[in-house]
Each structure stands twice: as structure tokens, then as C-alpha cells.
Amino acid sequence: MLEIKERKVNDIIILDLKGKITIGEGDKQLREKITSLLEKGEKKIILNMARVSYLDSSGTGEVVSLLMKVKKAGGELKLLSLSQKIKDIFQIAQLLSIFDYYTDEEEALKAFE
């Protein structure tokens, strides 16, 4: 089960994620959440992944697909607090370079300016 808590700082949405992003588990929840934010006109989104315990290949694909979806809608998606394990997964898949990712929330928020 993936828990998604939404916070708003100015015009930026921060999604605090907790749990697993895997096939049939967190991937669908995350997709639905991002889709509903885009439908409401929210285009600045940060995924706080500090408490994501596991990400499988399907979850990785979903995060990449959401990045493309947000960009297509004219928005920006940034990642926050990637664990070393998740960073390694993105590195191995050669995906780290397509993401803006930050270790500090303040930095991630400033990156939208």
C-alpha cells in the first residue's frame, strides 16, 4: 500500500509518499493522484520519496511516465530525498539524468523559481 499525503507550499504541491511503488500497488495510486492534480491545473509537483521503501521496474516506469505526462501538460515534476537504493535503480536504468532531484526540500522548492 502506498500512502500519499499532499501538502501545498505557495503554488507547489508536495506529495509525501510512504510505502512501495510497485506493479498493481502504488503505481496506479500515484498515477491517479498526479492525473487529478493536473486536471486541477496544478503544474508544480514534488515527489518526496524519503519514505518509499521499495520501487520495482513497474514503479520506475510509472515515475518516468508521470514525468513525461507532467511535462506534456506544461508542468514540472521534481524528486526529493531519494534513498541510495532508489537512486541506484534510476542510475542502473540510466534515468537519473532525466530527473531533477534534490536532497533538501528548500532547494527543491527554490528550483521552481
UniProtKB/TrEMBL annotation:
Single GO molecular function: anti-sigma factor antagonist activity
Instruction: Enumerate the SUPFAM superfamilies for this protein.
Output: SpoIIaa-like
InterPro entries tied to this protein: Anti-sigma_ant (IPR003658), STAS_dom (IPR002645), STAS_dom_sf (IPR036513)
Q: Outline the extent of the STAS domain.
A: 2-112
PROSITE patterns xrefs: STAS
Q: Which Pfam families match?
A: STAS
Record-stated family: Belongs to the anti-sigma-factor antagonist family.
What name does UniProt use for this protein? Anti-sigma factor antagonist
Report the source organism: Thermotomaculum hydrothermale
